dTDP-4-dehydrorhamnose 3,5-epimerase (Hyphomonas neptunium), 193 residues
Amino acid sequence: MIVTSDDALPEVLHVLPARHTDGRGWFSETYNRSAFFAAGIDFEFVQDNQSRSEKAGTVRGLHFQKPPHEQVKLVRCLQGRILDLVVDIRPGSPRFGKFTAVELSAINGRQLLIPAGFAHGFCSLDDGCEIYYKVSAHYAPQSDAGVAFDDPEIGIHWPFPTDSLILSDKDRRLPALKDCSDLVWPAAVGLNR
């Protein structure tokens, strides 16, 4: 397993599990608590989620859960390709409002570890994309929140024209980051890097 920090948001980690190949294909151990701990990552994941986006150009996000139900996410793509987006939403952070974009695919096997204090979303680049992610806290509707995918102050350049993107009504109504006045995050835990 190779773990590296993201260039734009160093708290976001790129995780590349080893793949063992032979004539049949490959095998990869995508999560091993001991290996993660040895790499300086110590989170207890309590829930696994999977989603499928039927059409390319589907956007989900930018989502997060507010404290005390904040979530760390370990995200990977099982089928197709996605552009995975992470935005720093920690007031006082020198990178507040900055984002990173990483292509995750079934072929490249990359995963992203997204700490609490960051909004997360993705855009499907192919039809039939399946995403799988582990979270460190159960879904809590009272803490469910998000930031507008098209917030001009964040300035994400989506891979399809904005008017052709497919979003839920809920995601289309998310507020701009400047209108999220109750963002308070505890000190980061679980990263010993």
